[in-house]
Structure prediction request, 539 residues.
Amino acid sequence: MDGAEIHRRLRERFGNAIGAELKLADWTVCEVEAKSVADVCRYLRDEPGLHFDCLSNLSAVDRKAADQIEVFYHLFSYELDHRLVLRAATPRPDPVVPTVSHLWPIANWLEREAFDLMGVQFIGHPDLRRILMPEDWVGHPLRKDFVEPEEYHGISTRRESLLKL
Amino acid sequence: MSVGGIPIEVGLERETAQGLETEEMTLNMGPQHPSTHGVLRFVVKADGEIMRRAIPDIGYLHRSIEKISEKVGYHGFMPYTDRVDYVSAMQCNQGWAMACEALAGIEVPRRGEYCRVIASEFGRLASHLLSVGATGMDIGATTPFTHAIREREYINDMRIGGVAWDIPPGFVQRATKYLDRFEPLIDEYNELISFNKIYVERLANVAIISREMAIAYNLVGPNLRGSGVSYDVRRNAPYSAYPELEFEVPIGTGERGALGDSYDRYMVRMREMKQSCRILRQALGGLPPGPVVAKVARNFKPPAGEAYVRVEGSRGDMGWFVVSDGTGFPVRTHIRTGSFAAMAIIEELSKGLMIADLVAVIASLDIVAPEVDR
Prediction:
């Protein structure tokens, strides 16, 4: 099924929770209201004819100028060989999106990564804790306004320029 | 059942019936461990020799490569992509290049695409050789590793410098000579290890991944194909010069045990090496004339937008997501790798396995630590 057709079916089923359809090279992007993400994903996974059996990627992007965090879901169907991108925008001070880890197990780790590095809260995630950074790290490093701490457990993060030595 | 009012789990029954008290053991494995292929750590909950589960703990090799991309710009990030999967760096270079090209709508000259395919397939050979050799070593066969590494050295000797430069004179002849020598050696490896009884028994029926489980965990590449899913980005979403080249996509068949076991994943890699040789011969023989690189501004500023491209790396479908705001520096780069998914599946996969099989499982999933942590 092509992207435009999938977008039409989503529009029919979820109405205003589905926004505009955009093109991203050979992917179709559907805007989705953040709080409806889990419902839309369940529909996409379980509905015959759509059958998105794989969450290929989940990326969070800090749109500081728009004061939003965007979460991208790249979905793929091995069964039917079609694909779709969902884009959910959530307010930057308090980014909240429902989890999809109960739908695709890989989302467990992908959401932990987005939480760790970008600070997105995934409501309903069974084990939302840091995955790449140390447990006691403060802040979310991929945020645009993240300031690197001067030291970590007595280890300085500052270094003299090698050119000066 | 319960003893003294305290419920105990099935599996401990025999020991308690004999009056022995047992309890779950927590073992630490890594992050520095000779057989974990880089800095990986597992917390193993075990009942004697049987693992209840192995919990992966990642991040020891996290260098925040994605954040670096936001500081160094598009051209500047290219050398960093080598370090995402340092076992087959050229495919990472290609992924990043393709993401930038998708943003800016750049068309790569055909000869350039052929050069990329050659680099990428030699990278696959080098990577699979390491994987296959290391699998042997992890389960106790140390000699095959030296054989595999020997051939690998010759590949690394034949660096072609990407497509920044055209291939050097005499390269095609030398590369063909290498293939003539290497191809029969694949059969030799098969005789040496693949059909060896001990080897087969260590891998067959160990850590079986069903087709559904592989897809739900987003396993990719040889790990996915080992479970019988015939999907290869090179064929199913073709890029570069692959549409012009003929090759087969080997999949697991459960030939020595259940479909999707460690042996199937191993054999997929062995067979892929043959296919890589086939691709290389075609690409070397059919190198089109012309330039190898398109004209790209030194001060590269792709228009605002997003791109998500996928390449078939040695560890499978590698996703490069890049967001541009029209300046010379990406807003966000996200690299989604095969090893990340392979690592995520281990907690589920390890349930009920022997502790000694854990290294065989890591090896059969071909996990490379920097790719997990980035």
